[in-house]
Write a structure and sequence with these properties.
Elements lengths: L1 H24 L17 H10 L5 H14 L5 H11 L4 H29 L20 H10 L1 E5 L10 H10 L4 E5 L14 E4 L3 H9 L4
Length: 219
């Protein structure tokens, strides 16, 4: 009897995981086999069930997190919260961790969009990050500032005397991390590699002048 119950639990868990993968494949998550016939997917309950089953398949959990980074705007957070409170189908700590992950990635995308917009308008002299989402949305100010800072690689007057110390490592970081943006201030050697050209801002100005301008009151 014990063996039969154990086998039943294993088969049931695998069946649920197969259903999860099949449903997520309908909305673009890689790794599962799509059903033979198209099905309607209700994302909020599917998310809760996925979080509940996360301990059974860590890969599914990671793939869904990646999907949320790109498509989280389609999730009705109010409905998700209501389902979580009423049905209690998911461990609250898991839901809270996922919610924090989504909030951080969405805020990061806001800052990245600001940098991309600035790169298109090189006549902009300064770029000030307001405390995005720290007001009505109550995102903590200190983590928000940390997210903004870690996205910007600010390189000041670094040439080719010792490029292996700062210049090349910064380029390597910008290349490996799509969210990062390189700001290079250099009068003579302000060029950037083509591989990160769309994520870099070159400022061909004298460093002393740039810093002096920034130090001016009201600049």
């Amino acid at each position: 009897m014990r063996s039969s119950l154990r086998d039943f639990r294993t088969d049931l868990s695998q069946t649920v995981l197969n259903c999860l993968w099949s449903a997520w494949s309908q909305v673009g998550v890689m790794g599962g086999s799509a059903p033979s016939q198209p099905r309607v997917v209700d994302p909020e309950p599917l998310l809760l069930l996925t979080w509940e089953c996360a301990r059974q398949d860590a890969r599914a959990f990671d793939e869904v997190l990646d999907w949320l980074v790109q498509n989280g705007r389609w999730i009705n957070v109010g409905r998700l919260t209501t389902l979580l409170e009423e049905d209690q189908v998911c461990v609250p700590t898991i839901a809270g961790a996922v919610a924090a992950f989504m909030a951080e990635r969405l805020l990061e995308s806001c800052y990245t969009a600001c940098l991309d917009l600035a790169a298109q308008h090189l006549d902009i002299k300064t770029l000030a990050f307001c405390c995005i989402s720290t007001g009505e949305f109550r995102f903590p100010k200190v983590p928000a500032a940390q997210i903004a800072v870690r996205l910007v690689l600010l390189e000041l007057g670094v040439g080719f005397n010792t490029p292996g110390i700062i210049r090349w490592p910064f380029e390597h970081i910008a290349l490996r991390h799509p969210s990062a943006r390189l700001v290079r201030v250099n009068l003579q050697d302000g060029g950037v590699p083509g591989s990160i050209g769309d994520r870099s801002i070159s400022v061909p100005e004298d460093l002393a002048r740039v810093l002096g301008d920034l130090a001016e009151p009201g600049y």
